[in-house]
Amino acid sequence: MRERDLARRFETFTRTQGFPELVGDTDKDTVRRYVEESIVQRVVFRDLPTLLDIRDVPTLEAVMNILMEQPGQIIHVSDLAGQLDINRHTLSNYLSYLEDAFLLRKLYNFSTNRRKTERKLKRFYPSVLSTNLLFRQDDHARSQVFEWSIVNQLRPEFFWRDPSKNGVDSVLTPEGPVPVDIKHGRIDTSGVRAFMRTFGVNEGYIITRDVEETRTSNGQTVHIIPAHRFLLETQGTLLTGHG
Hints:
By secondary structure, the protein is of the alpha/beta class. The chain has ten helices and nine strands.
């Protein structure tokens, strides 16, 4: 009973995007009004333009809307700037402004070489989602929302992708790198195992909706844990380096 209740509460937490003001009311229009009026419009249309003298507010809004509809995408600044018909420097500034306003989280592609890390791919997660995406019922949308919710709780600095497109969604670094992948549907351990081989790590994690098991092979152990259990019981030990 406790497990089912925790899983249900996690779903509610995701649907309300973690705002206590929305507890008890997960109606789509209510969530949309709160996110748009209390968060996005206040920051994008009032606070940032006033503080930073931004003239092209509609483009800043367009950047935010793209990220809210496509959380976790790898941004190629030159390509997106071309789509928006602005220069690369302006887009880089807008992304930085949204980060500074806590509306955006940037993840670096993990490397043991810090200088190399700064030059590699970057992924961006908004702090709030478009309600159109949040309330969609297709598998792809649900997977995106689930990944976004977990990443925003983990607050990682890194993800990982190699040239062969092996990857994990989060890399935690309390003392040494810990790969944490996020799977809403089918469980695939290949990304976590590729990370462990590359960086000499023996343990990794996959966060799921409701699957819990441990898979050990060739000295590698992958812990597969439901989201509510991971966030309540496991995350703290990893972040403090006592996992």
